[in-house]
Automatic annotation (TrEMBL):
Location within or outside the cell: Cell membrane
Lineage, uppermost ranks: Bacteria, Bacillati, Bacillota, Bacilli, Bacillales
Family matches, as InterPro entries: AAA+_ATPase, ABC1_TM_dom, ABC1_TM_sf, ABC_transporter-like_ATP-bd, ABC_transporter-like_CS, P-loop_NTPase, Type_1_exporter
GO molecular function term, any single one: ATP binding
Organism name: Alicyclobacillus cellulosilyticus
Keyword Nucleotide-binding: yes
Domain named ABC transporter: residues: 373-607
Protein name, per record: Multidrug ABC transporter ATP-binding protein
Highest taxon of source: Bacteria
UniProt KW ATP-binding keyword: yes
């Protein structure tokens, strides 16, 4: 069983540690590009506009940094003209000091821009991640079942990361690029219209050639990464299956396969690295050619006294700066599209209805439940026209133990999912104490239910904290008393730190039986009115099983309990056994009565005894 998807309750309970997932997993197809960029940008702005003052500070600091960056080439040109025309050391010194001051202010403005932009973006992403995680915890299980766990994890991590990277870098770079283009063009026109025409003619040509070369290089590196991935995957597979390779004497064949892959990777790497190594000189050559054209044109204009030498120096700097924002804008387009697509996937989850959205305003918050449970002609399907439960009826009196028996996929866990309201019945109704459970507040209902599943899930933290998850206000004495009832106290006290022993993720430093005992203690501490045991003892040794059964029978005394088990010997004392097959109740009765019928239950029981004999 997987971890719970619904932790709606203000007071956690054992249901919040697990999830019942009988439905099929249907992963969605993820689009690579944004589908409705305008709407997504508006929704992102709803997060950003809460910090309008900070955003204005980013815009102002970006404008200051951009203006000063563009002002530097002009100052350089003035400095050159001053040195040539006046040969005045004092004026030259003053110009150099002014140049240094401009550099320092530009650096300071850039620092402010980056710091504030990163702060705004990280705060925005934190709120998006918070809202998405809160939404995930409140999604109906039916929505969770429609998506793979990897896809949901990707939305919380990768898609949020795409938004974060765009807000961190692309937004400020986009602003700076637009301002740089406009400012650079304005400064060039201000100094010389003819030189501006020469520059804007030469730069796009070189930028286009550079882009084509870069595109070809990216293809080569992409091929290199593909081949590298195949080699890595092959090595990982062979290392994992090394015993099989040796047992079947396939070392020579596997070595030959690796040699072919390795040689193919070598050829691709040589081509990619050779092209990459030559790209730098090619780019420098193209840049130098454009500078040469600008310098030649500037020399002609200077010879005819149209401009000064300082203007030529300025334009060479502007030529270098003019090409950068053009390339940046082209590169940022794909990044922005990826971020919008990621944000769309995040908002898609946020737009899903929560479990509480479908609840009526007059829902009932139950107090202590007596535990009378009735399934009244219940039918249910995960997919249309594919019934999983078909006209199921049962009546459990308060304090009775109901055992659900049947093959895998018969519908046993689905019945539990309906009782816990992870799903609602398509037809018929389920009643607890005479009230349709659809009228109960889900959060309040689940606080009355306790569940122990076959896959014992524990969180990172101490054993004491994991047991207390059943009831947060429990004292240490109550936690330890619950552990004693679950027969867990003896092994916990033998651990180095006892109840304060830290459990690694998913409880990997405890045996399966020990994890199971801790989850039983957690259920005991919750003190539920109705208990659900889903294969609770099917994966432990015989001695531990006997200890667990003893604790569970004490816990079930006086409580309505539903037990799902394949080990038929564990349910002999059940008041009523329901044999489910194909979504229908095919037999019902006590252990002795069902054996006497010599039907499905009898054959299952005989088959188990024959297997264990």
């Amino acid at each position: 069983m997987a971890e719970a998807r619904n932790v709606n309750s203000l007071q956690p309970n054992p249901f919040q540690m697990v999830g019942l997932q009988p439905g099929p997993m249907r992963g969605p197809v993820v689009k690579a590009r944004a589908k409705d960029g305008r709407t997504t940008i508006v929704r992102l702005w709803a997060y950003l506009r809460q910090r309008r003052a900070h955003l204005w500070l980013v815009v102002v600091s970006t404008a200051v940094a951009t203006f000063l960056t563009l002002y530097v080439p002009y100052l350089l040109g003035r400095t050159v003209d001053t040195a040539i025309a006046f040969r005045n050391p004092q004026q030259l010194t003053a110009m150099c000091l002014l140049l240094m001051a401009v550099y320092l202010i530009s650096v300071a403005a850039t620092f402010v821009q980056q710091y504030v932009a990163v702060s705004v973006s990280q705060q925005t992403v934190k709120e998006m991640r918070r809202d998405l995680f809160a939404k995930l915890l409140r999604l109906p299980l039916s929505v969770i079942d429609q998506r793979s766990h990897g896809d949901l994890m990707s939305r919380v991590t990768n898609d949020i990361a795409n938004v974060s990277n765009t807000l961190n870098q692309t937004v400020t770079q986009f602003l700076a690029s637009i301002m740089s283009l406009a400012g650079c063009l304005a400064m060039m026109i201000w100094q010389s219209l003819w030189m501006t025409l020469v520059t804007i003619t030469v730069i796009p040509v070189t930028a286009f050639i550079a882009q084509r070369v870069a595109k070809f290089t990216r293809r080569c590196f992409a091929e290199q990464q593909r081949e590298l991935g195949q080699v890595n995957g092959f090595v990982a597979e062979m290392v994992s299956g090394e015993k099989i390779v040796q047992l079947f004497h396939q070392e020579q064949r596997v070595t030959e396969q690796f040699r072919e892959r390795n040689d193919r990777l070598r050829r691709v790497c040589v081509r990619a690295q050779s092209i990459s190594g030559s790209m730098g000189p090619v780019m420098n050559m193209m840049r130098n050619l454009s500078f040469a054209v600008i310098a030649f044109a500037g020399g002609v204009f200077a010879y005819h006294h149209v401009i000064t030498v300082g203007v030529i120096v300025s334009f060479l700097n502007y030529a270098s700066q003019f090409s950068q924002p053009v390339n940046q804008l082209a590169n940022q387009y794909n990044l922005v599209q990826a971020a919008i697509a990621g944000a769309e996937r995040v908002f898609e989850i946020m737009d899903q209805p929560s479990e509480s959205d479908g609840q009526e305003h007059d829902t009932i918050v139950p107090g202590h439940l007596r535990g009378e449970v009735v399934f009244d002609h219940v039918s249910f399907s995960y997919e249309p026209d594919c019934l999983v439960l078909k006209d199921v009826s049962l009546h459990a009196k308060p304090g009775e133990t109901i055992a659900l028996v049947g093959p895998t996929g018969a519908g046993k866990t689905t019945m539990v999912s309906l009782l816990t309201r992870f799903y609602d019945a398509d037809q018929g109704a389920i009643y607890i104490d005479g009230i349709d459970i659809r009228r109960f507040d889900k959060e309040a209902l689940r606080r009355q239910l306790g569940i122990v599943l076959q896959e014992a899930y524990l969180f990172s933290g101490t054993i004491r904290e994991n047991i207390r998850f059943g009831r947060l206000d429990a004292t240490d004495e109550e936690v330890e008393a619950a552990a004693r009832l679950a027969n867990a106290d003896h092994f916990i006290r033998r651990l180095p730190d006892g109840y304060d022993t830290y459990i690694r993720p998913e409880g990997t430093n405890l045996s399966h039986g020990q994890r199971q005992l801790v989850t039983i203690a957690r259920a005991i501490l919750a003190n539920p009115s109705i208990l659900i045991l889903d294969e609770a003892t099917s994966s432990v040794d015989t001695r531990t099983e006997l200890q667990i059964q003893e604790a569970l029978w004490r816990l079930m005394r006086g409580r309505t309990s539903f037990v799902i088990a394949h080990r038929l010997g564990t349910i002999r004392r059940a008041h009523q056994i329901l044999v489910i097959d194909g979504g229908r109740v095919v037999e019902r009765g006590t252990h002795e009565a069902l054996l006497a019928q010599q039907g499905v239950y009898y054959r299952l029981y005989q088959a188990q005894w024959a297997r264990f004999a």
